[in-house]
Design brief:
heterodimer, A: five-stranded antiparallel sheet, globular, B: 351 residues, alpha/beta, Peroxisomal Thiolase, Chain A, domain 1, ten-stranded mixed sheet, 12 strands, 32% helix, 21% strand
Chain lengths: 155, 351
């Protein structure tokens, strides 16, 4: 193979990262929620009807009304309301071993939050099971401050 | 309200991978075909609207290149939605309702094979509370499937039956991708992909492009022998937080269906954009479809699911069925977002 041919068949690569290349404010509600996570505390927000949304939102999705300024401490324990067992984690997943994505309704909350349950094996998982928070070793004010949920009593 | 009709529809065959053609090359023959079939001169089409996602090319405004397939000289009036082409059709319909134009070309394209579709879809979730956890489209759908299984609203067998029927019906659709005779017991013996979903419960990864021309009544009547009338088209949205919804129901589909007039006459056919098997069961219930309604004669999204194109294809397939005389009144549905978060319903009628 001549040098020219080698150059012609060389694969051209360009790295392109798709990202938010700017900082943004989380606002008064999610800002407080993530500040709470940094301090290892989970807070929901009350709607006008008195329901507690976790994660909190500035608006009640069922009515579109603004939520109240009242924040309620919830968890750290809760109940799994649905789950999906991931036997082969993707690189984009937070755990590199089999785990469950789950909807967890924390004690004191009226909605469930999506997170992962580090249960070890599928047979341990069931809807209605109790789980509790396992905090990340270092927290920084993001959703991964909750490293995972684990079956209650297992942590 | 102005009467508006679908006057033509065309698509590429939906395939696992368009290896050789880029987006423009995929679109050109489809757009040539749909314009020719419409009977409306290309220069006289008042508006062009497309639906696609830049997240596949990984480059902002990559959709602009696709306008090359339409021919943008002399300058055309053009718009784009980062949504399924069904919503591009909705925008074009609104434009015609406003009286700004009398006809529009709508197209969409999705080369899902360019990335990991399930992970690309993660990028549409809440960037603070959801996306950092990497909930892929299959895992999100699995949470929804489990919620219904737990409550006895459907069984794994019923889900498998949806997949088997869809891929059997797709045998009659030369443009469908995944088709064949499958045995329910055999596919139920397969392992889970993401429990409780097996591979057959999930859509194939598909590349494809589709296009439609719609026009107001006077133009449609003049140009087209068999216009398919859009009697209603509406879309509604549920919360982006899956944990704040009852995932076994689709209130936004119900509301869109009611607003579009789904129940104001007997339906012969429904083309439902249900990428996951259990979602067809949810949609059927939300829309109150009786067993006499033929569901997804095209094979639906379980037979081919090009990103942001499969919804427009439902409108196209439903209008084809009416043109072919297989029914007089049809419902076409498109979905967007995880777990059927956003839904569009379009009611179509022949003369």
């Amino acid at each position: 193979m001549s040098e020219a041919t080698a150059a012609e068949t060389e694969e051209l690569c360009a790295t392109h990262v798709l990202e938010y290349a700017y900082k943004r404010s989380l606002g008064p509600v999610l800002g407080r929620f993530f500040t709470g996570l940094r301090d290892r505390r989970i807070e929901g927000v009350k709607t006008a009807q008195g329901r507690v949304l976790v994660p909190p939102a500035e608006y009640d999705p069922s009515s579109g009304e603004s939520t109240c300024d009242e924040f309620i401490a919830v968890g750290p324990g809760g109940v799994v309301t649905s789950w999906a067992w991931v036997s082969q984690p993707r690189t984009s997943h937070p755990l590199d071993r089999p785990f469950a994505f789950a909807l967890v309704q924390l004690d004191g909350a009226d909605t469930a939050m999506l997170h992962v349950v580090d249960a070890g094996e599928e047979a341990i998982m069931s809807t209605g099971m109790r789980v509790t928070v396992r905090w990340a070793e270092e927290t920084s004010g993001c959703i991964q401050d909750i490293a995972s949920f684990v079956p209650e009593g297992a942590s | 309200m102005r009467d508006v009709a679908v006057v033509s529809y065309a698509q590429t065959p939906f395939v696992r991978s368009e290896r050789a053609r880029n987006e423009v090359e995929m679109l050109m023959p489809v757009i040539d075909e749909v314009v020719e079939k419409s009977g409306i001169e290309r220069r006289k089409i008042g508006f062009t609207c497309s639906g696609s996602t830049d997240y596949l090319a990984g480059q902002s405004f990559s959709f602009v290149m696709a306008v090359d397939a339409v021919g943008a000289w002399p300058p055309i009036c053009e718009s784009h939605v980062e949504m399924d082409g069904a919503w591009a059709l909705y925008e074009a319909w609104v434009k015609i309702q406003c009286g700004e134009v009398d006809s529009a070309l709508v197209f969409s394209f999705g080369r899902s094979s360019m990335g990991e579709t399930a992970e690309t879809m993660t990028l549409q979730t809440d960037p603070y509370t959801l996306a950092p956890l990497g909930p892929d489209a299959i895992s999100m759908a699995a949470l929804q499937a489990r919620a219904g299984l737990d409550r006895g609203l459907w069984s794994e067998r019923e889900m498998a039956e949806v997949a088997v029927r869809s891929r059997r019906d797709a045998l009659r659709n030369p443009e469908a991708q995944l088709k064949g005779e499958f045995d329910v017991d055999e596919i139920l013996a397969e392992p889970y992909l993401v429990s409780p979903l097996r591979k057959h419960d999930c859509p194939p990864v598909s590349d494809g492009a589709a296009a439609a021309v719609i026009a107001a009544a006077d133009v449609a009547r003049q140009a087209c022998e068999k216009p398919v009338w859009i009697r209603g088209i509406e879309h509604r949205l549920d919360s982006h937080q899956p944990g704040s919804r009852d995932l076994t129901l689709s209130p936004s589909t119900k509301a869109a269906g009611e607003a579009a007039g789904a129940s104001s006459g007997r339906l012969d056919i429904a083309e439902l954009h249900a990428p996951f098997s259990h979602q067809e069961i949810i949609l059927k219930q939300a829309l109150g479809l009786s067993d006499s309604v033929k569901i997804n004669p095209s094979g639906g999204a379980l037979a081919a699911n090009p990103i942001l194109t499969a919804g427009l294809a439902r409108i196209g397939e439903a209008s084809r069925q009416i043109v072919a005389g297989n029914g007089r009144r049809a419902l076409a549905h498109a979905t967007s977002g995880p777990c059927l978060q956003q839904n569009l319903v379009c009611i179509l009628e022949g003369d």
